[in-house]
Amino acid sequence: LACWLLLLGYSAVAARPRWSRARSPSLALRDEPPAVVSLLAGRAGRDGFPATLLDLAARGWLVLDHGNGGQLACLLPDRAPAERLAPYEAMAVAHVTARASGSGWVPVAALVADFRPGGRRRHVEDDLHRFAAQVRSEAVRRGLVSRLPGGPPLLILGVLGLVPLALAAGALARTHSAADAFLTAAGLYLVLLSCLRLLRRDRLTRAGRAALAGWLGFRTALTDLDRAGVLRTALFISGDRRAGYAVALGAAPAVAAAFRPDGDGAWSSHGGWWHQVDVGGTRRARRWRQPAVAEIGRAHV
After folding, report:
1. Residue 15: pLDDT band by 50, 70, 90 thresholds?
2. pTM across the whole model
3. With contact defined as beta carbons under 8 Å apart, do 94 and 111 qualify?
């Protein structure tokens, strides 16, 4: 058993994710989408969905309105671009369409509230896991992430774990019944198998580390050029694609703050206006005005 634990520790160290050093600073964009970049940088759960919304808005799939009393709202465009979306991007557009049905707009805080870790409702967790799984599948398809980096060690350690199982069963059979010995050894084997979860994690491939190194160079260039964050906010307001990548890399905290949900209350459009309700509490509902856009009438799918 001690030998098996040593092998497990060695395999866990060998399969740990490897970080990449930044390349020379450059603001040039690469081929990877922002959500995949957030996964490479280890920020998918926090910034993957906001970065996707920013990128979709820059490509014409959504409209972000900044004139709503300092609050940010998301609207549906009159016409969608003739472009094929990745599954997770199609999921984001469908989510906006469903939430904005009827009024044609929705606060981004209400959108992001459905894609944040630790959601209290079951469907929130399901949406978050499905979105994250689709982003991971896209990274695997591009050859940037290995889905099960510890695959061979998992199989080898699983088979070698039968040795302590057999020894434990043989020792217990001398003083206990065969059924008790088998159940105790089987329980030990389940504990050993649960330890193998240390190896079940994503790992960047060689191409993934090279891509991350390039994007870290982008982050360095953006940070060095814009110490005060003025440029990053300007990219956000102007709809530049680089704003999505800046959020995905954690280089634009002021922009990312606009997508942070305010509190844990549920969002509802009942009554014709968006408001946040504290379910079961006494907090006063918070109302949102109509976005400052000439016409809200939209064609919905």
Report:
1. low
2. 0.73
3. no
**Dist CA 57 CA 274 (whole Å):** 21
Q: What is the pLDDT of residues 125-142, one digit of tens each?
A: 567 788 888 999 999 999
Q: What SS3 state is found at 28?
A: coil
Give the pLDDT confidence of 135-165 residue by residue, as tens digits: 999 999 999 987 654 556 677 778 888 888 8
Of 193, 269, 245, 280, which is closest to residue 28 (Cα–Cα)?
Answer: 245
Alpha-carbon dihedral 143, 146, 147, 153, rounded to 10 degrees:
150
Closest CA to 194 of 243, 161, 242, 148: 161
Nearest to 241 by CA among 41, 87, 61, 116: 61
Q: Is 22 exposed, middle or buried (0-12, 13-18, 19+ CB in 10 A)?
A: middle
Structure tokens at 95: 């989510």
CB 130 within 8 A of CB 91: yes
Paired with 74 in beta bridges are 64, 106
Quickly tell me which residue has 């946040």 as its tokens.
Answer: 276
Q: Which uninterrupted H or E stretch holds 75?
A: strand 71-75
Structure tokens at 240: 């530049």
Interatomic CA distance for residues 67 and 290, integer angstroms? 10
81: left (phi over 0), alpha (psi -120 to 50) or beta: beta
Quote the CA–CA distance of 291 and 61 in Å, as a whole number: 18
Residue 293 has pLDDT above 50, yes or no: no
What does the alpha-carbon distance between residue 179 and residue 162 come to, in Å, rounded to a whole number? 17
Amino acid at 139: A
Coil, strand or helix at 204: strand
Element at 231 (helix H, strand E):
helix 230-238
